[in-house]
């Protein structure tokens, strides 16, 4: 039996705590293809229906549910109505208890709102993760379940298997990510090389792009919520703060984890671009081992998020490729309209260079996946002073694949950002572990 490499507080080995069983249960929604929501709630005028609903633990949730609301007096019906194809599993759960189908094991994680335990299907013996959530934040649980089901089918999203409930709690049975959290990897390995960071960003942006296309804003992108499977595949988890939006709809209300929160969240009206900001903060932590916006109090952190300018021309940034700096500056752009989209991040030369070129080294033909027109050379040129960018400006869209890779190589080596020198922000690299075990942990590393 596989043991989980990293466990959070109270975690123990599963060994010996679960029984073997024979055949796996067949009811699952995994095969279900994701499809656009047909029953989206019409966006309402700011301040009324897009309004605040109290979430679990006092979390402010301001996104309108994409489909109907649960009435306070009909929790089970509300859940069943909202979970779509999970409904059958839920119905079974309501007749049989969780324990009739699953054997609960040890705790493998502790979130702000509940604990996560390993569990094993009595039929078949497959292992899952079971997240228990108190019923006092019922509307939020409904939303989390609905969103997980809505996104189900994408390989980068933790799959929801079934939902159960008893008098006090909901139980979300999910795909088990036994490789631990990205945060644990970061604490273990220290800063990532640019190539390793690019691979993380590529995987993350692929799933974020999918979420945005499906009308979901995650709102809590951080390394604690990026889980890894046994084989090291990345899965985005914890949709407890996620919200569904219709085209162009803005959210209001502060939600997220302080250190990762985008400036527009603090001003009260925001869109899916908050996830790009969160990923930009994550990229900063991956490369430098420190948070970009810091302070001794929540207020100080928020002030830094709103005002501090990052200096990409000195200190630890000097050893980073200019394209890496270029990307992060475009992800941490306070101007939401010019901040990159997930798709643009995926097409950024830094990401392409470190991910596509890696593939090219082992599979020569794979570089034909680099589509010249998608590379934002114009943007690179406008932020560069070097001859490499000058030469890149002459490249045409029908450039051959080797030429593109050569250009990427030259660009990543020589291009420099031409922005004026800014005030230095980054404090000396603070080890991630230390950072998250400090007094600020509860404030800066956990959602609010
Ligand atoms: N599917 C899973 N497989 C393995 N471990 C998991 C899984 N889901 C959650 N965990 C573990 O449990 C922890 C808490 O889970 P999760 O973040 O979903 O809970 P939460 O109460 O919403 O937390 P938060 O305080 O971040 O909002 C995760 O950081 C992770 O360590």
TrEMBL record:
Gene3D superfamilies: Transferase(Phosphotransferase) domain 1. Belongs to the protein kinase superfamily. The keyword Transferase applies. Residues 1-11, 27-43 have a biased composition (Basic residues). PANTHER family: SERINE/THREONINE-PROTEIN KINASE. This is Protein kinase domain-containing protein. ATP binds at residue 131. Keywords: ATP-binding, Kinase, Nucleotide-binding, Repeat, Serine/threonine-protein kinase, Transferase. Residues 44-54 have a biased composition (Low complexity). It comes from the Eukaryota. Residues 1-80 are annotated as: Disordered. InterPro entries: CDPK_Ser/Thr_kinases (IPR050205), Kinase-like_dom_sf (IPR011009), Prot_kinase_dom (IPR000719), Protein_kinase_ATP_BS (IPR017441), Ser/Thr_kinase_AS (IPR008271). GO terms for molecular function: ATP binding; protein serine/threonine kinase activity. The keyword Kinase applies. Residues 102-351 form the Protein kinase domain. It comes from Triticum turgidum subsp. durum.
């Amino acid at each position: 039996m596989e043991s989980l490499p990293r466990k959070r507080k109270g975690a123990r080995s599963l060994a010996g705590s679960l029984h073997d069983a024979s055949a796996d249960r067949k009811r699952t929604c995994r095969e279900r293809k994701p499809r656009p929501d047909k029953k989206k709630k019409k966006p309402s005028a700011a301040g009324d229906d897009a309004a605040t609903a109290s979430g679990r633990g006092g979390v402010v949730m301001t996104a309108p549910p994409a489909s109907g609301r649960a009435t306070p007096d009909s929790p089970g019906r509300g859940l069943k109505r909202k979970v779509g194809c999970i409904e059958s599993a839920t119905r079974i759960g309501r007749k049989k208890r969780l324990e009739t189908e699953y054997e609960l094991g040890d705790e493998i994680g502790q979130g702000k709102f509940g604990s996560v335990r390993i569990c094993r299907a009595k039929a078949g013996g497959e292992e899952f993760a079971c997240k228990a959530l108190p019923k006092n934040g019922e509307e939020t649980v409904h939303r989390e379940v609905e969103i997980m089901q809505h996104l189900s089918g994408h390989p980068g999203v933790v799959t929801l298997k079934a939902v159960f409930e008893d008098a006090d709690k909901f139980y979300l049975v999910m795909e088990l990510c036994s490789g631990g959290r990205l945060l644990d990897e970061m604490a273990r390995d220290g800063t990532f090389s640019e190539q390793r960071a690019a691979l993380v960003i590529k995987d993350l942006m692929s799933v974020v792009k999918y979420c945005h296309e499906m009308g979901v804003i995650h709102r809590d992108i951080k390394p604690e919520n990026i889980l890894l499977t046994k084989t090291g595949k990345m899965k985005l988890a914890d949709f407890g703060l996620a919200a569904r939006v219709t085209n162009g709809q803005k959210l209001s209300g502060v939600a997220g984890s302080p250190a990762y929160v985008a400036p527009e969240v603090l001003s009260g009206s925001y869109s899916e671009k908050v996830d790009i900001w969160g990923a930009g903060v994550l990229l900063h932590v991956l490369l430098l081992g420190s948070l970009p916006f810091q302070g001794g109090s929540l207020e100080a952190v928020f002030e830094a998020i709103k005002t501090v300018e990052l200096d990409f021309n000195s200190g630890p940034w000097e050893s980073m490729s200019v394209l890496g700096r270029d990307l992060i500056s475009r992800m941490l752009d306070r101007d939401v309209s010019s901040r990159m989209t997930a798709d643009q991040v995926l097409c950024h030369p830094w990401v392409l260079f470190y991910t596509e070129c890696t593939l090219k080294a082992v599979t020569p033909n794979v570089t034909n996946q680099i589509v010249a027109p998608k590379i934002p050379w114009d943007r690179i040129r406008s932020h560069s002073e070097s001859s490499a960018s000058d030469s890149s400006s002459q490249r045409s869209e029908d450039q051959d694949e080797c030429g593109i890779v050569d250009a990427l190589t030259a660009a990543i080596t020589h291009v420099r950002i031409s922005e004026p020198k800014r005030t230095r922000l980054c404090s000396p690299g603070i080890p991630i572990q230390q950072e998250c075990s400090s007094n600020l942990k509860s404030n800066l590393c956990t959602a609010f």
